[in-house]
Amino acid sequence: MTSSLITRRRVLQTGVAAAAVAALPQGSFGAESVVKLRILETTDLHVNIMPYDYYRDAADDTVGLARTATIVKSARGEAKNSLLFDNGDLIQGSPLGDFVAYRRGMKKGDVHPMVAAMNTLNYDCGTLGNHEFNYGLEFLENSLGEAKFPIVCSNVIKANGETLRKPWLMLEREVVDESGAKQKLKIGVIGFVPPQIVQWDKANLDGKATTIDIVDAAQKHVPDIKKAGADIIVALCHSGIAGGERKGGEENAALHLAKVDGIDVILTGHQHFTFPGGKEFNNIPGVDVKAGTLHGKPAVMAGFWGSHLGVVDLELAKDGNGWKVANFRTELRPIYDRVDRKVVAKVDNDAAIVAAVKADHEGTLKYVREAVGTTSVPIHSYYSLVADDASVKIVAEAQAWYVADLLKTTSFKDLPLLSAAAPFKAGGRGGPNYYTEIKPGPLAIKDMADIYIYPNTIRAVKVTGAQVREWLERSAGIYNQIDPSKSGEQELINTAFPAYNFDVIAGVQYKIDPTQASRYDNDGKLINPDAHRIKDLTYDGKPVAEDQVFIVATNNYRAGGGGNFPGNDGTTIVLDAPDLTRDAIMRYIMERKEIAPKANGSWSLVTPTGNATVVFTTGPNAAAYQPAGIKVEKLGDAPEGFIKYRLVG
């Protein structure tokens, strides 16, 4: 999605006072007044249990709770006292999750493979992620019903006014202090999910549940946790780290949450980044990337898909009848390294987890290998961020075909139909192999999930030509501004901009000029009202008029406001379809039996001239393909296994 976030080497950072950690028991506190507590975090596992890429149908040493579990057990063995938490996004995100949801099924009493795996590790608590809601509330409850660990969430409210899950709980643990004596410790745990779930999964939540702001929920419940006698409070925050002024309702609110008095440790997630470390968080006031703190409080974000284990080591000092945090250290432990541009596993699989999911893993392999049609051309996404692309075009074609059929008897049938789609697998933080690459020949279900990785459903919105233009301007924020007069290399891609927000709209023709400033910032806020990157926007050979009316086929995430795109706030929806986008793609292919999606140059980049050397990175296999409509030149190796190219004028 963006440039690679994973450092592929062990990141070890220390808290502000951590230089004194080793000496603390011999310092002002006696050994009997010091408890060392290790807090462990997994996050954004997305049903990645085995070290296997079902899309490529090949082993993958960069993912899998089976590997993370080995590190968990090692980390526990090093500490007298430890707690293990999960930060959400458990039951959706890989073909294994889809196999369970759409083929195997989940009735009450069934054990979800993600839960089966986690039960072997004896988690202390977890929280919900936004993707827990993708398959509906009944599926969520059935999937988590057999978990042997509690799950808290304080800001999802049912129609009857109660929280969907218990908002917080108190873990009462007997721990061993540094003198070897037993002590009592009360750890309050509270959970949060992005409030935007009511937009992203409106069909599943409308009339059943709503959300409140993360900080508001914390301010409501944290005093009660303190009143109940918590020595420390751990926030399981399935929300990322972002700066700026708090306005309420933020998707990424962890930094604002850190200001809430009483919270001692923040476990973050959702963004699929790493913290401490992670260049995405540089220069944000209140964030110390090296120390691993948010407003001075220890925090970790343990990557995604099991890539890392987050570790927070606390030194607790006696405080009257209770305990308080005196010192801390934050750390990330990766499951693999990258040596000479090759992935090297750091640990082996945990046998208990492998055994727990064996049947479902084998079922998923059989499921994803089922054929649905053929393609006469390769479908890949290596150049999807710089040129019109077949992997995006097939999605747009299928969406338009599906929507046209449903609208043919409605009052919208004669309006021009466009289709918006984005490249999901475009390298970035997913690594140099995180691209779609399907060779000519049979297409299997795994290829549908490869082309379209999310369980989104189809929507259609009614918008004006002006909104179409602004929609594209928002998408064009993926590019850094290029200065043609400046010599030397200039990075084309804005690595903080997720590829899934780079919508291409098929049915209109246009150019994107990256020498202009972006009208919108990464969050979709208008920042440069006089800037215009979208050039020569036409429909059917004629300039698009501002008041011209279009129907745009898209997905539930975008239509409901995901990404903050102009024209998409839920009010413009004219078709709310029940089917998954990838199912529509599958039906489209099955009807045709053979497809040949073609990038026909409906959009293109204005290649900067002058002294600028405009560069971008892509996967190693990109060399086997020449993008249509743009000229590129391979420059050589880039960090983390990527390859660097430049645009040729």
Characterise this structure.
The protein is an alpha/beta fold. The chain folds into two domains: 29-363, Metallo-dependent phosphatases (Purple Acid Phosphatase, chain A, domain 2, 4-Layer Sandwich); 374-648, 5'-nucleotidase,  domain 2 (Alpha-Beta Complex). The chain is built from 15 helices and 39 strands. Strands 9, 10, 12, 13, 14, 15, 16 and 17 form an eight-stranded mixed beta sheet that branches. A seven-stranded mixed beta sheet has the order 1-19-18-2-5-6-7. It has a five-stranded mixed beta sheet with strand order 29-24-33-27-34. The longest helix is centred in the middle third of the chain and has 18 residues, at 390-407. The protein is globular and about 80 Å long. The two termini are 26 Å apart.
Q: Tell me the span between the first and last alpha carbons.
A: 26 Å
Count all strands and give the number: 39
Beta-sheet strand percentage?
25-35%
* Tally of helical segments: 15
Oligomeric state, counting identical vs distinct chains? single chain
Counting helices, strands and paired strands, the structural category is alpha/beta
- Flag low-confidence runs: 1-28
- How many distinct domains? 2
> What is the correct CATH architecture of the largest domain?
4-Layer Sandwich
Please bin the fraction of helical residues.
Answer: 10-25%
Keywords: Hydrolase, Metal-binding, Multifunctional enzyme, Nucleotide-binding, Signal
Family: Belongs to the 5'-nucleotidase family.
Protein name: Bifunctional 2',3'-cyclic-nucleotide 2'-phosphodiesterase/3'-nucleotidase
Domain 5'-Nucleotidase C-terminal: 435-566
